[in-house]
Amino acid sequence: MVKYISIFILFLVLLSCNSTDKVNILRVNKSIYTGSQADPLAKSCLDWKLTVNQVKTIFKLSKKIKQGQLYQHFYQLPCEIEGEALLNGKPINFVVNAASYISIDTGDSYFYKGCDKDRCKHLFLMVPET
Q: Model's pTM, two decimal places?
């Protein structure tokens, strides 16, 4: 019975990844805050850090969203972490916004992925309201 439950949980985890993209994170910069220095968010932003593995997790758990969905469902914060990666072997630039989404620039196209899952909460400063 335990074996079947373990297989079922593994199956659910694989389904939730919703991406077959292979991501190799090359660089993750320090956070950048572009808002007012008097804003209490400034310190939280500058203290916010992501590791290579955390960025990989964001890529895996996030789902592709349209720009309209981005502005309707996700907050936008003046706090971001930039980086570089290989996506399916091709170089990309990415920007993780502290409000639970990532912008991806492939050079040929630009798209967004958002993470509104509970498993993402610890990776960001703010998550969408459900």
A: 0.81
